[in-house]
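About this split. The held-out portion is used to measure sequence recovery: a designer receives only the structure tokens and must propose an amino acid at every position. Recovery is the fraction of positions where the proposal matches the reference. Here is one held-out target exactly as it appears in the evaluation file.
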């Protein structure tokens, strides 16, 4: 009976190689960030970032369409290196962080777009509004071991948003025409991922 049980377990493991190809990765908030760039007064670009990005990536290297991404960005961490501007951005005119302390992204489809490149479509919820967005993602296919015994890999993603689509409509007009703050926002994500250890399989009990 014991030999039969071992044979069944071995056969099951060989029958599902695709499961082994799927791995789960946690976004490391200490080494990940989200940056944004927006036009100011039609003449310069203002850059800022959010410092706390968290989430999970379920990655299938053999079939990208089976992969999923879920991430959250802490809007209270917005930083443009200007205290007064950051206070304004955190207030009701923009992110309204007391009411909406996070923006979230949840993928709805993942498609390969070349070597280590992907198109990830998902729902972005920002300022209480949910809209579909597309991320252009480039992933580092190489895994590296960190000094603490973990396994890591990196990825970067870019997209462009119209802030008005998410109810961020505050602006002031210039005497020469145009507005103080541009509507289009360029977004860049730099992510470091930590491989999650697979859950231990329950030990098989001896058959009586």
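Reference sequence for scoring:
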């Amino acid at each position: 009976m014991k030999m039969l049980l071992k044979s069944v377990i071995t056969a099951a493991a060989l029958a599902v190689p695709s499961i082994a190809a799927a791995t789960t990765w946690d976004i490391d908030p200490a080494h990940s960030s989200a940056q944004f760039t927006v036009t100011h007064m039609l003449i310069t670009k203002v850059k800022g970032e959010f410092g706390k990005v968290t989430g999970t990536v379920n990655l299938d290297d053999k079939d990208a369409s089976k992969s999923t991404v879920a991430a959250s960005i802490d809007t209270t961490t917005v930083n443009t290196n200007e205290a007064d501007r950051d206070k304004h951005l955190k207030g009701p005119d923009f992110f309204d962080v007391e009411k909406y302390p996070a923006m979230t992204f949840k993928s709805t489809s993942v498609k390969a777009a070349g070597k280590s490149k992907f198109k990830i479509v998902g729902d972005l919820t920002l300022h209480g509004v949910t809209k579909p967005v597309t991320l252009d993602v480039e992933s580092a296919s190489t895994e590296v071991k960190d000094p603490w015994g973990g396994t890591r890999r990196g990825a970067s993603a870019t997209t462009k948003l119209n802030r008005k689509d998410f109810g961020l409509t505050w602006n002031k007009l210039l005497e020469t025409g145009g507005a103080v703050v541009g509507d289009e926002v360029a977004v860049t994500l730099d992510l470091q991922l930590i491989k999650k250890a697979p859950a231990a399989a329950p030990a098989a009990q001896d058959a009586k």
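Annotator remark: Residues 2-15 form the longest helix (14 residues).
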